[in-house]
Structure formats: structure tokens, C-alpha cells
Design a protein that fits this description.
With 100 residues, the protein is α+β, with helices and mostly antiparallel strands. The protein has helices at 19-34, 63-71, 73-85, and strands at 6-13, 39-46, 53-60, 91-95. A hairpin with a 6-residue loop joins β2 (39-46) and β3.
């Protein structure tokens, strides 16, 4: 990965009773996002011990690629649903690769 690569873990916690709806909304993002030119990795995980919490592992060809993603219709459609699905604000954890 180049020095410009932006890696993120997005943490999303479902409101009570909204787990399946959040999971479906996140799954709907995967295919179109993976087709984006700036997307290097986009994978969804559900915590085993806390199934209302989802992690989206993302890697982008820099901040500009992430900005493009955020502006696209499929992501904006998700943004419109966030208030009804999330128990707390979306948390973005930015990562730095540690490689030999």
C-alpha cells in the first residue's frame, strides 16, 4: 500500500430492534462501493459478542477517494437512514499500517 492509502474502521452500533435493518443497509453498500475506482478494500464485520455492532473495514486511495465515496448516491442514501438505524454517531477510526 502506498503512503497515500487511507485505512479506516467504521464502527456502527444499531438502535435496539434495528440490527437487521442496519445490516441490510450496510450490505447494500458493499457491491457499489467495491466498484469505485478509489476503493482498495471494503468489508463488513459483525461482532460475535455484541451483534448490534458492525465494523466496516475500508481502504482508499487517499482522502480524495473517500470524499468521492461519501458524495455518491449509494452512500448518501445510507446517510439518510443513519438517524433511524444508529444508536450513536458513526465512529471512524483512522489506521496507519505498521509493516516491516
Amino acid at each position: 500500500m502506498s503512503d497515500n492509502t487511507l485505512s479506516i474502521i467504521a464502527v456502527l452500533k444499531a438502535k435496539e430492534g434495528q440490527r437487521d435493518n442496519l445490516k441490510s443497509a450496510l450490505q447494500a453498500l458493499i457491491a457499489p462501493t467495491r466498484k469505485e475506482e478509489g476503493c482498495l478494500d471494503y468489508a463488513l464485520f459483525q461482532l460475535q459478542e455484541t451483534p448490534d455492532v458492525f465494523y466496516m473495514r475500508e481502504s482508499w486511495k487517499g482522502q480524495e477517494a473517500l470524499d468521492v465515496h461519501i458524495a455518491l448516491p449509494h452512500f448518501q442514501a445510507f446517510v439518510q437512514q443513519m438517524d433511524s438505524l444508529l444508536a450513536e454517531p458513526l465512529q471512524l477510526i483512522r489506521l496507519n499500517a505498521v509493516e516491516p
